[in-house]
Design goal:
By secondary structure, the chain is α/β, with parallel strands linked by helices. It has ten helices and five strands; from the N terminus they run H-H-E-H-E-H-H-E-H-E-H-E-H-H-H. Strands 2-1-3-4-5 form a five-stranded parallel beta sheet, covered by helices on one side.
Length: 254
């Protein structure tokens, strides 16, 4: 509603910020395991604001098979219990094979797991059901869906929301770059193209020769991130038609 009523950018940190950084991490994790967005199955546990935003952004990046789960289980077109208008949309636009059951059931054949839910949601047995070289982003804080120590040896790439483990997925990587890019060109909104650009900019900080299962996302202290994100977000705003400042007068600042 705010996006429609206001002529200035509206951005929800815990929702869209999380999604941008998740996509950045996924881009690099897929390079490590040699898989493509369009070929993978992603299970998302926790279909709140962040879970929906993460699903939408990876779909925009090319993922075709996403299965979302809430406390009842898999969300599919036709499910009646514990639904609302957001989950109705989610059911219509995800889970193409109409998988049913608990999160443990739908983990079979998954390539990627996004946890935006609660501690201890998945187990080693769930990881064993996944495809080869599974990617697990367990982002519940402070206790993730599965601890890295438990997952070790069963996953190709592991990330959490914690700073005391490798690959911290932290919203702060978006800032101040997204806002700087939007302000530079006086963008009227922060659209999906700008979020995708931010994710690609964050992922691109790490060169292919530097990529490692324990290094798929730059540090929050990496000073290159903000400038790179600002430049790509500004360019995406011009390309998508939401910039309100002409290029001839715009000053690229950081």
């Amino acid at each position: 509603r705010l996006k429609e009523e206001l002529d200035i950018p509206v951005f929800h940190d815990d929702q869209h910020g999380t999604a941008v950084v998740v996509l950045a991490a996924l881009i690099n994790a897929l390079k490590i395991v040699g898989k493509r967005m369009e070929d993978i199955k992603v299970v998302v546990n926790g279909i709140g604001a962040a879970g929906v935003a993460c699903s939408k952004i990876v779909m925009a990046a090319g993922v075709k098979n996403i299965v979302g789960c809430d406390t009842v289980g898999a969300i599919f077109d036709g499910r009646k219990e514990h639904m609302n208008w957001v989950k109705d949309w989610y059911a219509r636009n995800t889970n193409p094979n109409k998988e049913k059951g608990t999160v443990h059931d739908v983990m079979s054949g998954a390539d990627v797991f996004f946890g935006l839910s609660a501690p201890g949601t998945i187990t080693i047995d769930d990881l064993k059901k996944m495809n080869s070289d599974p990617i697990v982003f367990a982002m519940a804080n402070p206790v993730p869906e599965i601890m890295p120590e438990e997952a070790a040896g069963h996953v190709a790439v592991m990330a959490t929301g914690r700073s005391d483990y490798p690959n911290q997925i932290n919203n702060v990587l978006c800032f101040p770059g997204i806002f700087r890019g939007a302000l530079n060109c006086r963008a009227s909104r922060i659209n999906e193209q700008m979020k995708l650009a931010a994710a690609n900019a964050i992922a691109g900080i790490i060169g292919d020769d530097e990529l490692h299962p324990d290094y798929i996302i730059p540090s929050v202290f990496d000073r290159r991130v903000g400038e790179a994100v600002a430049a790509e977000v500004e360019e995406a705003a011009y390309a998508s038609g939401v910039a309100r400042r002409s290029r001839s007068t715009a000053e690229t600042e950081f």
